[in-house]
């Protein structure tokens, strides 16, 4: 588990570094500088997690090297040589194109914290025009220092606590809020004021806390009329075209509303209660290419026809690239891009397409999440389809009458398939509603507690 968690943290650090480089290159130094503490934390977390790995640990490497020394006087020399095997072997000039492209890169506990992290931070300051040092300073200092002994981080004591700790580190979408946006029938635009109640909450003692750590922007259809569009099959509207997909992405990625409103609300909250432990993640829904659409739009002078699977994939790639480019150009200050969500809630129409979309997203290091409905075709096959993570809809709150045993079955299915669960509710949880369903929300929480889902509860 430690190796998988470290890979996820490494991807997060890589994403932060890439965003830092883009901001620095655009002259947005203040915004770039704000990312350095988050980058430091991700790499520090990665180093700490690798303490649990049976092999990827500098202390173990050095201990074996020193044990192999024929005399006690050669122990330090053997330790220095062991460190040389793990580092650059090359003294890069200050103007090297990629001074962090090492010959023998090793993501190991101790090596990340004491060697790579200082070099990454030095590179950041160099890109900002601050005072920095040549990279060979880190090479020589690391190789010639005293052997690595016991400079490890303090970890949770029990295996259960360690698993919970690692899950919290990597599951940036541990508490994800679905934010429906973009449809012309919505009476809200997700302004800063509308986003604010979903960013923090105040407890019984009057103390303010952060709420969700991830936000999913999605839409299933737009409007109620016959001429309105659907972004997934089954809503009895006209299938969306390229222009509709573009308008939807533009509705999400505004400056003052949508993701922009969320970004502003988080910034305002930070001014009140201080910075978050990690930056909030944003996920964007991918519309379903609906079979039967023969004139979706043109890409590279080619008319795409959704009766051809290759054209479906090309449309999705275009959308993904458009969203990522626009998100990066917006240079939001308080949120990071987390990944994409597949809007269709079953795989009946896209079983062959989804793995190809997943492969493309994996190639550009984007997460891919899914929330199929209860009983949906393909729901428990989410891993084979290529999704990074999936959550099951119990479909309990919205039924006309409570379905006895539904929540227990949903919890059992989710545990068997290693899925998360979704909490579903609307304004009817309020006590002053005519059809008050607050009791059903309590049913969700009680069932999740009963089946041990509290640590990964997803809203």
The N- and C-terminal alpha carbons lie at a distance of 25 Å
The biggest sheet, with number of strands, parallel, antiparallel or mixed sense and barrel status, is: 7 strands, parallel
Q: What would you report as the Rg, rounded to the nearest angstrom?
A: 25 Å
Question: Can you tell me the overall shape?
Answer: globular
Low-confidence stretches: 455-459
Decide which structural class fits the backbone.
Answer: alpha/beta
Give the rounded overall mean pLDDT: 86
The percent range for helix content is: 40-55%
DSSP summary: helix tally: 15
* Quaternary class: single chain
DSSP, total strands: 14
Q: What spatial order of strands do you see in the largest sheet? A: 1-4-8-11-12-13-14
State which percent range the strand residues make up: 5-15%
Order of helices and strands: HHHHHHHEHEEEEEEHHEEEHEHEHEHEH
Give a topology summary:
Blueprint: H1 2-25, H2 29-49, H3 58-67, H4 75-84, H5 111-127, H6 136-144, H7 159-170, E1 176-180, H8 192-195, E2 200-202, E3 208-210, E4 214-218, E5 221-222, E6 229-230, E7 238-239, H9 242-252, H10 259-273, E8 280-286, E9 297-299, E10 302-304, H11 309-330, E11 335-342, H12 353-363, E12 367-370, H13 382-385, E13 389-392, H14 406-416, E14 420-421, H15 438-450
Helix pairs in contact: 1-2, 1-7, 2-5, 3-4, 4-6, 9-11, 11-12
Structure description:
The protein has 459 residues and is an alpha/beta fold. It contains 15 helices and 14 strands. It has helices spanning 2-25, 29-49, 58-67, 75-84, 111-127, 136-144, 159-170, 192-195, 242-252, 259-273, 309-330, 353-363, 382-385, 406-416, 438-450, and strands at residues 176-180, 200-202, 208-210, 214-218, 221-222, 229-230, 238-239, 280-286, 297-299, 302-304, 335-342, 367-370, 389-392, 420-421. The strands form 4 sheets. The protein has a 7-stranded parallel beta sheet with strand order 1-4-8-11-12-13-14. A 3-stranded mixed beta sheet has the order 5-6-7, with no helix packed on it. The chain has a two-stranded antiparallel ribbon with strand order 2-3. Strand 11, helix 12 and strand 12 form a beta-alpha-beta unit. Helix 3 (58-67) crosses helix 4 (75-84), helix 9 packs parallel to helix 11 (309-330) and helix 11 (309-330) runs parallel beside helix 12 (353-363). The longest helix is centred in the N-terminal third of the chain and has 24 residues, at 2-25. The radius of gyration is 25 Å and the shape is globular. The two termini are 25 Å apart.
